[in-house]
């Protein structure tokens, strides 16, 4: 379940994903499978080839793309999340969710 984002932010992400853009959406998230992880960044794109290429270029396994979802995406967590958000210049998401203090 997602926390800490607005409906407008979610709808904007969905629209960009549907248009074939690589879109980033960070939100609070709790999953017992990942103790200590409190945020996730969903990197979405409905062009699966483009999203797979994005994964490969970031040393991530495209087999972990959530393909059955209406909005295909890869879940970024942990240090890789911070690394990629920093490289992409998405400092607002880093600061908003206090990712550097973890």
Automatic annotation (TrEMBL):
Domain of life of the source: Bacteria
Protein name: Uncharacterized protein
